[in-house]
Amino acid sequence: MMMNPLPTSRREFLRNAGGGFGIIALAAMLAEDNLLAQSGPTNPLAPRQPHHAPAARRVIFLFMSGGPSHLELFDPKPDLQRLHGQPLPESFGSVATRRNVERNRLLGTRRTFRKHGQAGIDVSDLLPNLAHCVDDLCLLRGCRGTSVTHPESVYLVNTGSILMGRPSMGAWVTYGLGTESQNMPAFVVMPDPRGWVKGGAPAWGNGFLPSTYQGTVLSGGAAPIRYLNPPAGVTQTQQRRTLDFVNRLNQEHLRTRADDTELAARINAYELAFRMQTHAPDVVDIARESQATRRLYGLDRPDTAEFGLRCLLARRMVEHGVRFVQVYCGDTNGWDGHTDVDGNHARLCASSDLPIAGLLRDLKSRGLLDSTLVVWGGEFGRTPMTEGTTGRDHNPHGFTMWLAGGGVKGGQTIGSTDAVGLRAQDDITDVHDIHATILHLLGLDHERLTFRFNGRDERLTENSGEVIDRVLA
Q1: Which residue from 366, 371, 451 is spatially nearest to 174, judged by alpha carbons?
Q2: Contact criterion met (CB below 8 Å) for 113 and 122
Q3: What is the pLDDT of residues 177-189, one digit of tens each?
Q4: Residue 330 and residue 410: Cα distance in Å, rounded?
Q5: Which residue in 290, 310, 459, 464 is a FRET match for 255, CA 20 to 30 A apart?
Q6: What is the CB neighbour count within 10 angstroms for residue 235?
Q7: pTM of the shown model
Q8: Do residues 122 and 38 touch, judged by C-beta distance below 8 A?
Q9: No. of H helices and E strands in the chain?
């Protein structure tokens, strides 16, 4: 039998072996970017290795729909009180608002601020319960957005872009990390039952990511998961057989349509829904919660019961392995205090302050806060100038968000707005910086968490964003 001669030169050896080197290099790069585990017929929500050791394993994002006023809550301005009723000084320059509000007079707040916690951080009297948690909070007082309208700003904070159709932060996180539970959705959204956020479902959509990464909507009340139980008279065995038959047909259809992410997501959704019928009722059943826990979230009070229930469900969700939970506070208009910002915020703080403080305390007492990142914020803040006589207009130029738990150094403020609270001026944190920091705390490098779309490696932070190092514990 004739044997192939051995390579006679280095050039010939490299030519023959070059293809193998390329495959080895490609495998190494794919493994480094965590893409091998994301390909093939495996579960797209299977747990994945982060880029670096994470401080947090899960997120609860408390979204204050409508744009809460930093000037009434977290950012006291003595100069604004002193200048109440006067025009905005020319030294502050012009500013883009929706209705030329910069021509209106400055509006001092009716609220009083006191220093709280060991850090001595100023918090409004509208938040007496959250004020006791201030040593766990990292306040970002120098936040800045780009749009003065609700939908675009909602999309920016949730998806990193003012344009509709990009993946939400929850979708990116589940794409990058998968889920810790195969019996519950990886990404759960609980809108305010009185009305959805302006901009609607794209705020928690999957965008150009596969459909399996979109948020799953749950509600409060006795049946937060609609249509979960099978029809009367249908046994679990019958349902399993039906699902197996449908699954076989879908898989045959999918073999010739490998890029049909909608169908792949539907197949996974059928399987997940079946498993949820066994496991989800225990997750959403609060009957076993103690009376002390119910009081902690305000379930015994009419003004806090509804939002308190959704905050309690958020804790139960992360406790059972849900990766990303988003809870919306505020009906269609929510915190949008155009005509009576004080009355508007007094009502919403009355319904949310106690439940949010209860959530932080409950997570902490159960040893979950260290591994759960809690984020609070809305789409923008409010102007220091009046709209009408007692309201404030939209202000993306300077506002406050806060982070707690999950690797965050609490008891501090980062950044500031100017003397009247109009613009962020020191240690400014753009929305992409906040997103980069959240991903970093979860063990994800925002520049490496990418998805190829239309010939471009897209990411949550688009073309900018830096981790806010001072946030990190």
Answers
A1: 451
A2: yes
A3: 999 987 888 999 9
A4: 26
A5: 459
A6: 9
A7: 0.85
A8: no
A9: 11, 17
